[in-house]
């Protein structure tokens, strides 16, 4: 007689608000419980809401009608303003709502002025959570969120008369009852590098749990898997002393990404000429491109190329001070330590700027090189512009590529992208790092399926 195997657990269902390209969703879909690494996703996305056409198209290409994994049901994607979206009946059974409602400002001006532009999107997030009533909600935002009016509004909505009165916030990592309010709030900041990302990126993560869920159990934040190596200290992966807990391994360095790209040829300066009809946005957009097709360069001016050449490993704009360059008769860039090098007939120009030279104590990230042996700095939406931050390749005379930025964020090689190269850069920079999303998914799974 055939004995049926153990029943497969029901998937944990998710609604993703302000979804962007789907970084949060990708992290949730990549998570696998211990012992089930070869199984399919345990989180299924029911719906996503996104107002940017290219980002919605990218979400569709991975999790909607264009998803490559058809063993998982397609997520329904609402392309448009969140104010015009109402959850479908099946969405009302979602276990989890995730999202990062954009904060329109962080000053104390117009505090509690309901309906104002700066509070509108925040109020929509609260409205939908209150309507769906998920078991867990997750808010992802910038570090300044914790000092914003929106965070105070969240705390007020959790009070007895608020829309989220049925919820309580999960205590942040390291919280003790002796903490001041400011100390407790600061603990909501998670660094993606602590969870295996090759990027030091601090994001506010606030988790709420419905009070009637858990049978008296308390949910916890994900446990860090890596730690910052103390300056002058020993790698955390060193062998522990007898009778002591093994230390956490040190933050992962960005080196692996550049080892990947070192064997690739730059694919020119433009994405492939390709378009696709995306039903969810009812339009034809550039794409679909895989992450592997994003290794494209730029067409910098000679001044930029000379700066890239003059900045050494671990260097930045300060290394351009008192340096000059020329483009010689053979169209080659030459760098000098003097404004009047002997024997040079072509025009000699200064590499730095008056503004940079005057600022000795400012950030060293401008025109800085990423450092091997360390995690990347935060990948932002204009990572392809080294004048915006430390976005030069560690050794090559160029900025990092879209491919390298996507891999630093943790996107897989087969992730699918839609939009112009500027659209794709914006999607990469705005995304939740995949390892951080996986860690949050792990904590939620441990709570809901324990």
From TrEMBL:
Alphabetized InterPro entries for the sequence: C5-Methyltransferase, C5_DNA_meth_AS, C5_MeTfrase, C5_meth_CS, SAM-dependent_MTases_sf
EC numbers, comma separated: 2.1.1.37
UniProt keyword annotation of 4Fe-4S present: no
Keyword terms: Methyltransferase, Restriction system, S-adenosyl-L-methionine, Transferase
Renumbered residue ranges of the record's region Disordered: 218-244
Any one GO biological process: methylation
Signal peptide: none
MF annotations from Gene Ontology: DNA (cytosine-5-)-methyltransferase activity; DNA binding
Family: Belongs to the class I-like SAM-binding methyltransferase superfamily. C5-methyltransferase family.
Protein name as annotated: Cytosine-specific methyltransferase
Organism: Kitasatospora viridis
């Amino acid at each position: 007689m055939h004995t049926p195997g153990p029943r497969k657990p029901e998937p944990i269902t998710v609604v993703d608000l302000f979804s962007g390209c789907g970084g949060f969703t990708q992290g949730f879909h990549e998570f696998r419980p211990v012992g089930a690494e070869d199984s399919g996703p345990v989180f299924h996305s029911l719906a996503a809401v996104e107002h940017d056409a290219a980002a919605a198209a990218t979400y569709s290409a991975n999790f909607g009608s264009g998803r490559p994994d058809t063993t998982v049901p397609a997520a329904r994607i609402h392309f448009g303003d969140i104010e015009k979206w109402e959850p479908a009946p099946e969405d009302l059974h979602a276990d989890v709502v995730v999202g990062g409602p954009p904060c329109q400002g962080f000053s104390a001006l117009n505090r509690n002025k309901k309906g104002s532009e700066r509070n509108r999107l925040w109020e929509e997030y609260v409205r939908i959570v209150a309507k769906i009533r998920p078991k867990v909600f997750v808010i992802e935002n910038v570090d300044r969120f914790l000092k914003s009016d929106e965070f105070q509004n969240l705390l007020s909505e959790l009070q007895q008369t608020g829309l989220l009165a049925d919820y309580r916030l999960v205590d942040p990592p390291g919280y003790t009852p002796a903490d001041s309010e400011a100390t407790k709030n600061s603990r909501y900041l998670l660094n993606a590098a602590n969870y295996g990302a090759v990027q030091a990126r601090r994001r506010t993560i606030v988790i709420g749990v419905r009070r009637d869920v858990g049978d008296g159990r308390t949910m916890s934040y994900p446990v860090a898997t890596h730690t910052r190596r103390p300056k002058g200290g020993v790698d955390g992966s060193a062998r522990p002393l007898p009778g002591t807990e093994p230390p956490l391994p040190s933050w992962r360095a960005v080196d692996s990404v550049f080892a990947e790209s070192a064997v690739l040829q730059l694919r020119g300066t433009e994405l492939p000429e390709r378009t696709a009809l995306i039903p969810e946005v009812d339009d034809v957009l550039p794409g679909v491109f895989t992450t592997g097709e994003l290794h494209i360069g730029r067409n910098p001016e000679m001044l930029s190329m000379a700066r890239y050449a003059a900045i050494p490993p671990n260097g930045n704009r300060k290394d351009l001070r008192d340096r000059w360059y020329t483009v010689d008769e053979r169209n080659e860039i030459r760098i000098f330590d003097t404004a009047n090098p002997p024997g040079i007939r072509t025009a000699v120009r200064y590499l730095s700027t008056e503004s940079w030279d005057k600022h000795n104590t400012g950030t060293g990230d401008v025109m800085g090189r990423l450092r091997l042996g360390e995690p990347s700095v935060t990948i932002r939406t204009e990572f392809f512009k080294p004048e915006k931050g430390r976005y030069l390749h560690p050794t090559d005379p160029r900025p990092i590529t879209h491919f390298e930025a996507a891999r630093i964020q943790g996107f897989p090689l087969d992730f699918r992208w839609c939009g112009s190269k500027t659209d794709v850069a914006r999607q990469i920079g705005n995304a939740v790092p995949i390892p951080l999303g996986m860690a949050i998914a792990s904590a939620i799974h441990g709570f809901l399926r324990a």
